[in-house]
Design a protein that fits this description.
76 residues; alpha+beta; Alpha-Beta Plaits
Length: 76
């Protein structure tokens, strides 16, 4: 399955390699569609390709980090 989602990152994660680590921790193919980061916050629009349960695990991990996930769309 392929999903597209918008993520909003809190400032406490500004120095963390969150997106890079996702590919190491989960069996996903991740593409950054668009992103913007500053010292206060950041956002990114990503597509993630993986088995449905792996996408769910990835999103759960992001939520546990305090990242807001919205506008989730399945891509055909």
């Amino acid at each position: 399955m392929i999903v597209k989602a918008e993520l909003t990152f809190p400032s406490v994660l500004k120095d963390e390699a969150v997106i890079c680590n996702l590919c190491k921790q989960f069996n996903i193919i991740l593409k950054i569609v668009e992103a913007s980061f500053s010292t206060d916050t950041g956002w990114a629009i990503l597509t993630i390709e993986a088995a449905e349960n792996e996408v769910e695990r990835t999103f759960e991990h992001l939520k546990n980090l305090g990242i807001e996930i919205k506008n989730i769309q399945k891509v055909t």
